[in-house]
Records
---
Amino acid sequence: MEENVAIHVRGLWKSYQDLEVLKGVDFDVARGSIFALLGSNGAGKTTIVRILSTLLKPDAGTARVSGHDVVSQPAQVRESISLTGQFAAVDEILTGRENLIMIAELRHLKGAGKLADDLLERFGLADAGGRRVATYSGGMRRRLDIAMSLIGDPPVIFLDEPTTGLDPEGRLEVWKVVQNLADSGTTVLLTTQYLDEAEKLADRIAILNGGTIIVSGTLAELRKLLPPAKVEYVELQPSLEEIFLAIVGSKDPNDSVGSDMREQR
């Protein structure tokens, strides 16, 4: 495996009884990049993540994470990764800070309190750190969940559909966190069924369909697979997401957009 490749997958096969989920999956993920695995529900995205995180053994093929084989060297793989599933794994009874301290102590790390405070600041949760997680919004819970997964500074993180069930504001919060992770040198493998999410975040995109990667590349490379775009002059209208954020996201009650909308009502 090349030195700048964090994840190396070749010929991955996996079946559940008579159902073939993966049929020879191949891809590489460069260190410090965001790689989006795009596919519909049931395409096999979570199966790939479970294999790469050593929670599931493949029927055939090889996979290496940070230079370690997922089958023969599972302990070394686990030391170099972190996994965030589709639902935030946080304790609602504890505060945000207590959740972080708990994970740091379970991993026998020194200075758990300082680690927690640093992560709360990094993820924009410092003001909410003393509140019980039960009071957090969906986006805040997901940010806390990702922060918990970063305790110990793993070089590779798997995010399995991290924005499932979030509102538009929550999605944007998580997108910012994911981009910051890559900017800091963390390798991110992101599974998603949302096209705009892959387009917004990923350095490279792989489309999983029928148990195989049918195409992989940068967004620019994927665009070249289609006929050249026609130039047409149209009136650009704001999207519903832009309208929602302009109104709900406004901090100033006298904001012109919000005021105009209220006057119309």
---
Amino acid sequence: MEILLIGGTGTISAAVARLAAGRGAKVTLLTRGRRPELAPEGAELLTADVSDAKTVGRLLAGRSFDAVADFTVMAPREAERDIALFSGRTGQFLFISSASVYQKPPVNYPIAESAPLGNPFWRYARDKIACEELFTAAYRSGGFPVTIVRPSHTYCERTVPLAVHGKHGAWQVLERMRSEKPVIAHGDGLTLWTFTHADDFAQGFCGLLGNPHAIGEAVHITSDEAITWNDAYEAIGKALGVRPNLAHIPSDFLAAADPGLLGPLLGDKAYCGVFDNSKIKRLVPGFRAKILFANGIRRSVDYFLSHPEAQTPDPEFDAWCDRVVAAHFSGMKRL
């Protein structure tokens, strides 16, 4: 099987590329070339920004693929670009959407692919919905062979999944845990959430590659393990050898303190995220996420502790946390 992965060195795409290559697929990666070390051995590397139509057209001239997966599509214009670029050139096109597209607040649990779509809080999710609609219309009107994949909160050894963090990622939160400073947990920390390791996600995703039963379908790929946010932070702390000092702060208070959190919190993590994985298991017999969060997060924390280049300080976020915690508990005392 010959596959093209656009953006193949990210959190989930690198795991997909590695597994696909390990299973004998001929893998071509189209990336901007920023992390070539994450490409699997033997993969063909094409360096370009996919938005550069002239360069991409030259690199892909005369080529076709059994499957193409674009991990970079965020907006409708990019979906339209890919429909035009790959119509008639691939047996399958996999669009990576997001589980954040499901209606907020959810109407039923566990969430199945048939759940209504709609997210008034997050532009990111609404754009993904618009992309899904374009790809689905192309499938229905012209047979464009799309499969829509909806990941939820997926992480790998190079990432620590959190609800609230700064622009430089997770390290400052880990440092706050290690120094026993308050670590912000949204709400009461008791909502259930699903964390999926990228290696597990790749198992399901690679089972969809070249799968004729997946054409025209939308499917999410997540773990069956659902844990509270409190348990997640406790597991991160345990991997660090500490007990985290959690400061529980309402999600709407956090979004008021930083409007950038409106979508990721009130449009996603403030609600329970528990998913029905029956569909992916039907499409990929034998699929089951095997990496428990307590084990996967230990690998992530070990990576951060052993890689100084991942330890990026974020004093601006650190100061923001201190201000928000102080403001919240000062208000409580006044009551």
